[in-house]
Each structure stands twice: as C-alpha cells, then as structure tokens.
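Practice problem. Given the sequence and the SMILES for pyridoxal-5'-phosphate, write out the predicted structure.
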Amino acid sequence: MKRRSFLKGAAVAGAATLLPSGLLELTSACTRKPASAQGWNFDEILDRSGTWSIKYRRAEGDKLAMWIADMDFKTDPVVSQALRDRLEKDVFGYTYGPDEFFEAIAGWEKSQHGFDVPIDWVEYAPGVISSLCQVYLTFTEPGDKVVVQTPVYDPFFRYANRLGRVAVENPLRWKDGHYEMDFEGLDRLYDKRVKVLVLCNPHNPVGIIWPKETLSRLAQWCAQHDVLVVSDEIHADLSLYGRHHIPFCSVDETAARIGIQLCSPTKAFNIPGITGTAYAIIPDPVKRQRFHDTLGNAKLREASIPTLVATIAAYTHEPVWLEAVKRYIEGNIACVENFFSSHECGIRPVRPDASFLIWLDGRALGLPQAELVDLFNEKAGVVVNNGAGYGTGGEGFVRLNVGCPRSIVEEALRRIEAALQK
Ligand SMILES: Cc1ncc(COP(=O)(O)O)c(C=O)c1O
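Answer key:
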C-alpha cells in the first residue's frame, strides 16, 4: 500500500493533457514527458476471462497459469491512455510509420541502454519471431545452419527447422551455479554451412544479461567465421537489480558490422497481444537494405495503428511504471528464493538478471522430466513451461512466470510445497 501511494505521488500529470492533442506532439525521448497520474496496483487480480488469453486457455479449473511470457498486470496507464485517445478519433485508415516512431525508439535506446542509434538504423519489424524468420529467409539458404545456445526460447530452432534450415545446438555451460557461453563448443560445431547465430540477450529462459566481454568475444568469433548474429533483445527493458543490458550492436564495431538486433516494447510494457510490435536495429547498410527489401516484398512493412501508438507512448515517457513493475518482480523473485532456501526440497531457482521468468532447477529431485512437469502442472496445479522444450540442457528444469500479483506467487509456492510433501 505504501508503495502504491508513493508511486501515485511520484507520478506527475501528463498523459491526459499530452496525448489527446495528438501524436504529433510526441517528439524524441530527449524531451520525455512525465508519467500518467492514474497510478497502478500490481496486487490486483485481473479478470482475464473474455480477453482470449492464451495463458489461461491452458489452465483449466483453478490451476494457476504461470507459463507463457505475459504478465498478469495492466499495462502502463500511459500506453492505455494513448490507445484510448487514438481510438476516440474513430478513424482507422491506412497509416504510415511516422518519424515519431523511429525517434521514440532511438531516444529509448539512448536513455535506457546508452546506445546512440541513428534513426536510419531502425527498421519496423513485424514481431520478433516473424522477423527472425525473415532474417533466416534473407540471409540463409535451405540446408544452411543456424546456431542456437540451448536451453533457449524454442521458436529460434523450431522455425529454423520449419523453414528448411538446420538448427544446431551449442548448449550453454553450467559452471559453479551459473551459465556461460561455450566458445570451444562453437569451434567444434563450426563448418561452412553455419551462417547465423541467434543470441538471446537477455537470455530466456536462464535470465542472463550477457557481459560485455562475452558479447565482444562472440562478435569476434562470428566475424572470423562470417556468421551473422541475430540478437533477440525482447527482454532488454526488464533488467533487474540495477543491472544494465548491453545491446549487441553497441559492443564494438565488429558487433555493429555483423549484428541485427530484434527488439520490442511488448514484454516490458506487457502488450504482446498487440502483435507485430517490434523493430530491428541494423547498423550495416547492406544488411539493412536486404532486410528492408525482404519485408517490403512480403508486404510486411506496415505497422498497425496500435503498434505505432503504443510504442511511441511507451518510449516517450519517464519509465515510472516500468521501474515500479521491475521492483515488484524483484519482490516476487525474492519470495520464490526465500521459499526454496527455507525448504530443502531439491528445487533451486536460478536468479534472473532480467525479466519475470524464473528457471527452476529440479535436477536434485532425480525425477524423470515427465514426472517433474507433472508435479507442477498436475499435482500442484501450477502450470509452468517444461524445461525440456528449450532444447539440450533443459531437462531437470521448469520455467516459472512470476509476472503476477504476489498473492498468486505465494499460493503457487503453497501448492508446490503440498505437492512435494505428497
Ligand atoms: C526471447 C523471446 N523472443 C521473442 C518472443 C516473442 O516475440 P514476438 O511475440 O514479437 O514474436 C518471446 C516471447 O516470450 C521471447 O521470450
């Protein structure tokens, strides 16, 4: 409660006066406007019935839905207000991506990640994974190899294979309780068919914000082997504990030359249902032109009105709501950590540097994977993601989404405890 009234006090009038007068007023983030005065309540249990929620479709009865990566919070009120204001115009004709969209993105990269992005490096991208597919189609031939560093977000390898490319795994190394990239593994797997490496930065599901040295070393390795790096940075704006995300293309000239960043406000602002909301940052002009042409030829270069409005609104205001949601997520993670450190039960959370997904290490339970998943999904009634779905290295783990009210996290822990005791 105290936290909420503090935040209400901290929020300053803004959106209501700013946005109705039109998006023309929204300039670069250098002139970022203050946040909405409407406040928020992350403890509120949302009723998602009637919203066609994918998350709840897989959580029958009284099961808790703690799997797919959206949060059970309302979005930033500034974003909602911008969408409402735009809807009230009742005009939904064909729309171009205005300069404000690109300026908002460049301003955000600078203010949040310290990355100077000239506007012409930014391309609209129709969703992160659909754009990743376009990268595969543009920069590789059927039979070419795409490296993924498992355990990792499964569409990276699923779509590579579906498109006739060959996903090859370079599993992360588990060392002294944390993950590292395996550079010797890269040397071992390399052959001339390797054309793309997909980096997850920050990494889903293990939650790492990759250190600059690792990114720089990766850039060197990929440059030497003529491998394009696609860096999925969808979780970048959710860095926790004062950590700083490092955009891949900002690392050095080599990374900028060989890298394509795919980014989006959908995770941080909890708007993934506004599909097609993403952008690419491509410093190299030749790669940028090829990506641009591919999208244009497939008629994929047109952003929807909600995409434009939500992105501009999210990225041109002080991120007061975002900071608050990150603090709340840290509180939820603490709850999970405290529970498992006081209950010696064979499950250990891997603390994420970013985002609201916790990688739970259940290897000490010694259960076959199907039984581990059954323990959560059926015995406890807490629907999680099966770690094995993320490729090699995912066995023995599940992924728990704690982007939800604290009372849900507490209830999930009670249920897990009861299921373990049975
Ligand atoms: C790492 C990562 N990339 C991409 C996505 C999905 O992005 P999009 O909905 O824009 O395709 C997710 C969603 O969970 C994700 O975790």
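Check your answer against the key. The longest strand covers residues 194-200.
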